[in-house]
Design a protein that fits this description.
Elements: H1 8-19, H2 24-31, H3 35-45, H4 50-87
């Protein structure tokens, strides 16, 4: 995944500027981004504050760990099943 030049907290801060009444063009010009980028961020992070963003990141990390655990257990299960089939 490509690492951007802005952190999620900076993105949320830009979206809060928009919600407070700043124009999109001014925000984009001030931060050196394109309006398309701003609107994609708005779609992804719209309405979030810093606390919700932290919760989202922690849930994504937990989901990643659980998927990894499942993959490892599935592989172990398959190996054990192959061993049992060879013995019979």
């Amino acid at each position: 995944m490509k690492n951007g030049k802005f952190t999620e907290t900076q993105i949320v801060a830009m979206l809060q500027q928009y919600e407070s009444g700043m124009k999109v063009t001014d925000i984009c010009r001030g931060n050196g981004i394109k309006p398309d980028t701003f609107y994609s961020w708005k779609r992804k992070y719209g309405g979030m504050d810093a606390q919700q963003l932290k919760e989202l990141k922690s849930l994504q990390e937990e989901n990643r760990r659980l998927k990894q655990m499942y993959a490892n257990l599935s592989l172990d299960h398959r190996i054990l099943k192959d061993i049992i089939e060879k013995k019979l």
